[in-house]
Amino acid sequence: MTISRRQLLASASALSLPTLAMHSAFAQKAQFTLKYGNNLPVTHPMNTRAAEMAAKINAESKGRIDFQVYPNNQLGNDTDMLSQVRSGAMDFFTLSPLILGTLVPAAQISGVGFAFKDYSQVWAAMDGDLGAHVRKEISATSSVFAFEKIWDNGYRQITTSTKPINTPEDLKGMKIRIPPSPFWVSMFKAFESSPATINFAEVYSSLQTKVVDAQENPLAIISTAKLNEVQKYCSVTNHMWDGFWFLGNKKSFEKLPPDLQEIVTRNVNAAGLLERADVLALNDGLQASLKAKGMLFNNTDAALFRSKLRSAGFYADWNKKFGEAPWALLEKYTGKLA
Questions:
Q1: Which of 157, 129, 154, 182 is nearest to 334 (CA)?
Q2: Same domain for 67 and 112?
Q3: Would the pLDDT of 16 be above 60?
Q4: Looking at the domain assignment, is residue 228 inside a domain?
Q5: Residues 107 and 132 in one domain
Q6: In 88-202, alpha helices (H)
Q7: Which of its termini does the chain have fewer beta carbons within 10 Å around, N or C?
């Protein structure tokens, strides 16, 4: 089943109350209380599916688990929540591979600019050898692990308040908000922009007060965060595919008996697959919806931007940083980049 945009919006006001009720209903008898936080609005497909997932986990465990969902930065910003899941103060967290790359550099390889041409390449790679490589590196180099199925965040687009982005030259000198990741910094510096790293919770106000003139995000986030209220143009660049690794604290997860580990794992992965379909369906109607609200769209030629990155040495630099073997895994699915 996929969820329509109308259903997502209709469920927004109802989502928080059942979640809170779910906490209190199971808290008294639960053997294990598991906290999951994310940075997205309650209307995003991630939180719709997370609420369903939590209810299923609690029910299938017969109340032994009280799985709690905290959307919309309730437990802190990305940096705070990553620290919490690493320490075990929080049990689960969904994070972009590109931001996770500040802790596990190998994780950000899936976000190489203008690499994946379509979703068939994305899922072949992330459900295949490239995803397996990244999960292995996450587990080997940190106190967290990633579940098998990465969740979708969609292809990222650039929005601005000043002008549309038609060519790489339009990005020159542009004050653009990016997430706190060296990977984003290097890409937009290759485009000669002026990137500023700002946590997502502060994006709307930063655009509203003109601290920055532009930002980049998937359409689902542009819509649910109402960024169209502070941005006029949306340039369809598809410059990065982005997802969310569903991360867990190793020690916390290992405290669960095998049967409960299986219940959590199965439901997390199943919810991730449903969320992928939701994001795809939602994106199909978002352009029309945002246009109706006054946002102006333009298409771009990916070859121009890829050529600029290649000439700036972006691909060659990251080939060296990731190493030949991981880069070969990426190009197994994308074709030659560097």
A1: 129
A2: yes
A3: no
A4: yes
A5: yes
A6: 97-100, 119-126, 129-141, 182-190
A7: N
Report whether pLDDT(12) > 80.
Answer: no
In whole angstroms, what is the distance from residue 72 CA to residue 178 CA? 18
Q: For tokens 């579940």, what's the residue?
A: 147
| Cα–Cα distances in angstroms (integers) from residue 66 to residues 13, 34, 52, 60, in the given order | 22, 6, 13, 11
Structure tokens at 237: 């660049």
Give CA angle at 307 (302, 309), nearest 5°. Answer: 100
**Structure token digits, residue 118:** 């379509």
Q: What radius of gyration do the chain's Cα atoms show? A: 20
Mean pLDDT of 277-299: 93
Of residues 94, 116, 114, 127, the one with CA closest to residue 273: 127
Which amino acid, 298?
N
What residues have CB less than 8 Å from 203, skipping those under 6 apart? Answer: 177, 215, 225, 227
Burial class (CB in 10 A: 0-12, 13-18, 19+), 70: buried
Q: Which residue range(s) make up the domain with 227?
A: 155-239+291-333
Which of 59-73, 142-156, 172-186, 321-335 shows the lowest per-residue confidence on average (mean pLDDT)? 172-186
The answer to whether the CB of 196 falls within 8 A of the CB of 331 is no
Do 248 and 307 share a domain, yes or no? no
5 within some domain? no
Query: For residue 176, what are its two tokens?
Result: 């653009």
How far apart CA 322 and CA 180 sit, in angstroms, is: 19
The C-alpha atoms of residue 320 and residue 289 are separated, in whole angstroms, by: 42
Contacts of 216 (CB under 8 A, 6+ apart): 156, 157, 158, 159, 176, 177, 178, 237, 239, 240
Q: Distance between CA atoms of 65 and 58, rounded to whole angstroms?
A: 5
DSSP state of 31: S
Nearest Cα to Cα of residue 38 among 284, 273, 243:
243
pTM of the model as a whole: 0.83
